[in-house]
DNA sequence: CTCCTATGTCATGAC
DNA sequence: GAGTCATGACATAGG
């Protein structure tokens, strides 16, 4: 295996060096195998965090995806911007690594828990996953069998405990006592039943024990302890373990680039040149992660041996490593506008596109693993173009709208995380449908048009009084290039072209550009016309993929908070350009979704307020008014030079909006409580019926015992006689059982008097 | 027309 | 005291 790694690594290093010589920055994630000087040579001094580092960090800190701090979400955007411009800005390593670790933990375990587990398993992992559950089942079965055996042992013990009581009986009473024991037998059975029922939880314990016992997966399962299937934990652990192993075995190889690789390098450059027009399509790693992972899955099914095995393994590793970035990529472009981007314009896009695409190509190399395969693959430009086309299609299907839709579907279909596979399926279906339709932009425009009805700010933007809300054209134009290019990075060229068309067609959409991302204090750049098409809520949902899942962790019943989507997306026209950072933060801090059913009445009711607001020429959007933090809101009101009527109406709108959300939450909570109570009621009724049945059985057995004991009592006393030979009266005498298993006949009066004496003594004492 | 459901809105209390 | 949230009560629209 080691020599394969060496071979594999050598080819990658050579390729990376060649690419770096050609001016293409690459990140092959092989720093573990290279001396630091090589890293500097190939990747440059400001190279990004590599996937091995990420894996290391994740293993080292064992961060849990649930330990999400909202502040980190806020900083995450800025950090992500740094990540996106890694070749431009020096990122504090520790901070970035911490964020990346958390960022990776989220999407992996939180949002699509099954997705990665389905996609990224290496064959060995799959085998392990397939075998280990059986082991666990075996353990469970063993545990159950143990429990049963123990129960049997207990039963035998109980019966053996009972036997000595029978032995000392007198021979004359042997038959009678045997009958008595027969009478008492049901009681023993009850005892057994009770012991069984009491022991049943214990017998179940072995079934759960593997989850936390010694055979349980090691505490590496920091991803999602308790909720994640063990299999997922196993494969993750294995994957990271493999990565660590790779890291712990640095292989230093001589730098001997071959002619073959030279050719490959030229081919790659040619591929870049040819695919430059679609460079943005390479920036959808999540999609091509899905794409690439199909092969490993197939390979896994076919049984991996030899070189294919290695190929699938490395491909899994690489695609998995890329996935944290990939999942963020659609949102990335929106926050990409940084200072450097604002100044450099399209340069950065191409740089980034090249970098990403080179990474992608290298991932393909890794997948093949051997230089000969690399050359064969890379020489075939058709394959490259196919990959580009496919990535482009996937990219088109990966629009924020689909993201939002999938979010909605996610909320509709599930509250938990078990829907990962289905979600992935829906996602892929959506993407396929989108690629069949082929024009997501048209749909986005349709949606914009649909929602633009409810626009408030759009109207006021046109109004002369809303001068403060109008973005200066100069800034918009200045930012348009960078933002549009940034958007173009991730969203296909169609987006760009359509945006350009739109910008050429009308300036209105430029004016109503949502400037949520532009005001990012650290990024400093402003967006262009691309922004309205890809609102920030999608970015948020994309940036924090696990967030929708995480928001349910604390049983936060904020079901219908003012939707981020509505905060910006549904009606770009309604969105006032006046967007402060805290407003964005507020919307981000309270992730929310509005069900589609609630949107229509909302727009209707909003139309009422809209009319009033239009009459009073209020220059703010509804979402802005409602979702802005109070400080920002007050600041907005104070700086707006608004009349008293306007202030009152704005406050009313805010109050109504907040109360509307509160009412929705309240109703949802009430419904949940009602459903929970119904479940409890059902369970209690079942328990009651069981207890009643048990009581009836017990009473029946007690009556039977009483009758049999009475008959036995009569029979015994019929055979007993006093000193005079007269039969004893069963009402005057009773049987007394001594501690030494002796049985004596005592008078009832004497026993009553002794009891009285004992009672008197007790009272006196 | 009535009933039911969903939703928005208001009033009120708690924090 | 203001702001926010939760919730009951009422109004309204639509099926």
Automatic annotation (TrEMBL):
PANTHER family from the UniProt entry: ENDOPLASMIC RETICULUM MEMBRANE SENSOR NFE2L1 (PTHR24411:SF31), NUCLEAR FACTOR ERYTHROID 2-RELATED FACTOR (PTHR24411)
Membrane-protein topology: Single-pass type II membrane protein; Single-pass type III membrane protein
Bias (Low complexity): 457-484
Keywords: Activator, Cholesterol metabolism, Coiled coil, DNA-binding, Endoplasmic reticulum, Glycoprotein, Lipid metabolism, Lipid-binding, Membrane, Nucleus, Repressor, Signal-anchor, Steroid metabolism, Sterol metabolism, Transcription, Transcription regulation, Transmembrane, Transmembrane helix
Highest taxon of source: Eukaryota
Coiled coil: 674-708
Record region (Disordered): 108-166, 195-232, 326-352, 401-484, 566-606, 746-765
Entry's Gene Ontology cellular component terms: endoplasmic reticulum membrane; nucleus
Compositional bias per record (Acidic residues), positions renumbered to this chain: 442-452
Tagged with keyword Hydrolase: no
The family this protein is said to belong to: Belongs to the bZIP family. CNC subfamily.
Annotated localization: Endoplasmic reticulum membrane; Nucleus
Native source organism of the sequence: Xiphophorus maculatus
A single GO molecular function term of this UniProt record: RNA polymerase II cis-regulatory region sequence-specific DNA binding
Compositionally biased intervals (Basic and acidic residues): 147-158, 411-437
A Pfam short name: bZIP_Maf
Amino acid composition bias (Basic residues), ranges on this chain: 754-765
The keyword Transcription is assigned to this record: yes
Protein's recorded name: Endoplasmic reticulum membrane sensor NFE2L1
GO BP terms in the entry: cholesterol metabolic process
Domain BZIP, chain residue ranges per copy: 649-712
């Amino acid at each position: 295996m080691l020599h394969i790694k060496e071979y594999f690594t050598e080819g990658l290093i050579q390729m990376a060096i060649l690419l770096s010589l050609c001016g293409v920055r690459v990140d092959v994630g092989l720093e573990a195998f290279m001396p630091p000087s090589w890293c500097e040579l190939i990747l440059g001094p400001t190279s990004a965090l590599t996937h091995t580092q990420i894996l290391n960090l994740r293993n080292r800190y064992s961060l849990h995806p649930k330990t999400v701090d909202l502040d980190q979400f806020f900083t995450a955007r800025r950090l992500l911007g740094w990540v996106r411009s890694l070749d431009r800005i020096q990122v504090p390593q520790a901070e970035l690594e911490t964020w990346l670790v958390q960022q990776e933990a989220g999407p992996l375990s939180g949002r699509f828990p099954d997705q990665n587990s389905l996609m990224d398993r290496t064959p060995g992992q799959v085998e392990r996953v397939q075998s280990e559950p059986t082991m666990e089942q075996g353990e469970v079965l063993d545990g159950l069998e143990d429990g049963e055996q123990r129960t049997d042992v207990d039963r035998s013990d109980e019966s053996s405990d009972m036997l000595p009581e029978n032995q000392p009986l007198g021979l004359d009473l042997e038959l009678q006592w045997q009958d008595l024991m027969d009478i008492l037998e049901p009681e023993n059975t009850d005892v057994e039943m009770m012991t069984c029922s009491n022991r049943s939880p214990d017998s179940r314990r072995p079934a759960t024990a593997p989850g936390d016992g010694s055979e349980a997966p090691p505490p590496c399962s920091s991803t999602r302890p308790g909720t994640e299937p063990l299999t997922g934990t196993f494969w993750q652990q294995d994957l990271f373990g493999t990565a660590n192993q790779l890291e712990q075995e640095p292989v230093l190889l001589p730098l001997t680039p071959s002619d073959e690789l030279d050719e490959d390098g030229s081919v790659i450059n040619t591929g870049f040149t040819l695919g430059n027009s679609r460079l943005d399509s390479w920036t959808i790693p999540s999609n091509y992660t899905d794409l690439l992972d199909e092969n490993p899955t197939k390979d896994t099914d076919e049984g991996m041996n030899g070189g294919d095995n290695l190929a699938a393994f490395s491909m899994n590793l690489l695609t998995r490593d890329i996935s944290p970035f990939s999942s963020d990529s659609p949102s990335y472009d929106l926050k990409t506008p940084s200072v450097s981007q604002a100044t450099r314009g399209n340069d950065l896009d191409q740089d980034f596109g090249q970098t990403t695409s080179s990474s992608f190509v290298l991932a393909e190399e890794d997948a093949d693993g051997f230089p000969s395969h690399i050359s064969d693959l890379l020489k075939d430009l058709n394959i490259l173009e196919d990959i580009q086309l496919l990535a482009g299609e996937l990219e088109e299907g990966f629009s924020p709208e689909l993201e939002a839709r999938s979010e909605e579907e996610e909320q509709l279909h599930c509250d938990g995380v078990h829907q990962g596979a289905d979600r992935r399926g829906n996602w892929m279906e959506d993407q396929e449908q989108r690629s069949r339709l082929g024009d997501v932009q048209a749909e986005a425009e349709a949606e914009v048009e649909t929602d633009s009805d409810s626009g408030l700010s759009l109207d006021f933007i046109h109004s002369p009084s809303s001068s403060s809300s109008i973005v200066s054209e100069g800034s918009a134009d200045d930012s348009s290039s960078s933002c549009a290019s940034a958007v173009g990075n991730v969203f296909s060229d169609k987006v760009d072209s359509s945006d350009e068309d739109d910008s050429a067609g009308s300036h209105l959409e430029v004016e109503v550009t949502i400037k949520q991302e532009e005001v990012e204090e650290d990024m400093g750049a402003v967006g262009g016309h691309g922004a309205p098409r890809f609102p920030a809520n999608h970015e948020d949902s994309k940036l924090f993929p696990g967030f929708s899942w995480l928001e349910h962790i604390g049983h936060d019943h904020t079901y219908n908070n003012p939707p981020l989507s509505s905060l910006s997306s549904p009606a770009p026209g309604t969105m006032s350009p006046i967007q402060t950072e805290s407003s964005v933060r507020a919307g981000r801090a309270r992730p929310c979704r509005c069900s589609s059913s609630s949107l229509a009445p909302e727009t209707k009711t909003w139309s009422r307020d809209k009319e009033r607001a239009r009459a009073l020429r209020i220059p703010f959007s509804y979402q802005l008014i409602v979702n802005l933090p109070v400080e920002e809101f007050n600041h907005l009101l104070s700086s707006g030079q608004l009349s008293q009527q306007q202030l009152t109406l704005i406050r009313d709108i805010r109050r109504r909006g907040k109360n509307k959300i509160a009412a929705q939450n309240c109703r949802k909570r009430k419904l949940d409580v009602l459903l929970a109570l119904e479940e409890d009621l059902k369970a209690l009724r079942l328990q009651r019926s069981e207890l009643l049945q048990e009581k009836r059985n017990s009473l029946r057995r007690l009556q039977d015992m009483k009758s049999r004991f009475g008959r036995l009592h009569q029979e015994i006393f019929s055979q007993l006689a006093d000193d005079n030979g007269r039969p004893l009266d069963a009402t005057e005498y009773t049987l007394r059982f001594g501690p030494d298993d002796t049985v004596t006949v005592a008078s009832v009066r004497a026993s009553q008097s002794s009891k009285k004496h004992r009672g008197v003594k007790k009272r006196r004492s």
